């Protein structure tokens, strides 16, 4: 009898130890000392990413412009082109549909949201969002080869021919070329190279637009500290598919570029004229008699 009582007491002690350990490890008070031991869902929003995109598509047009910088019709058309032309692969097993993938990509590009911000808006893991955004970006790059093209090299654009301010002075101009800076987040070891003259990290992108304000050439990737002339020389000497013009045609460029065949910068005045112009703008004091 005494042996059975001792065994029973030992079992009771072990049970109390197990209960105490469970209380210490799995109770809410344990989170204050060693973090949560129970997996708690993070994205618990009642309105998921797919439902939110559908709400914007059927809602006011200003909401689409504010969040995606694109109209509802253009957003729907873009999704159809990416899928029907094979730029982005789709199948019935895919959890993230094309509309949601395009929406998260546009929000990342337009507002510069980080991955955690996209995870909060679209309840998916960072791996899922990263995979879908890269698929959309690859599809957009493939789509860009079809829409960013040079056309109408030998004809005078109606905006030039029908305006006496431009014709015949710019009848041989095909478009305008300039460099622009896009904000970037480079690694720490190369941040100095990407720092522009304003003190921010960016990429220097060369772009050419025609008279319809459509891109006909884009050359990104250069550091923000690179000069526009250096970017242009690199685009001309490497296989970047730079749209060369026939003899007699030219691009309108700013004063940072040299006047060479195919590029027309604005006329630079003489130093004396610039000094006289600044002197005429300088405010003068009262006259003394």
TrEMBL record:
GO terms for molecular function: hydrolase activity; metal ion binding; nuclease activity. Its cofactor is a divalent metal cation. InterPro entries: DUF8040 (IPR058353), HARBI1-like (IPR045249), HARBI1_dom (IPR027806). Residues 177-276 form the DDE Tnp4 domain. Keywords: Hydrolase, Metal-binding, Nuclease, Nucleus. It holds the Pfam family DDE_Tnp_4. Residues 44-142 form the DUF8040 domain. It is found in: Nucleus. GO terms for cellular component: nucleus. PANTHER family: NUCLEASE HARBI1, PTHR22930. Belongs to the HARBI1 family. This is DDE Tnp4 domain-containing protein. It comes from Cinchona calisaya.
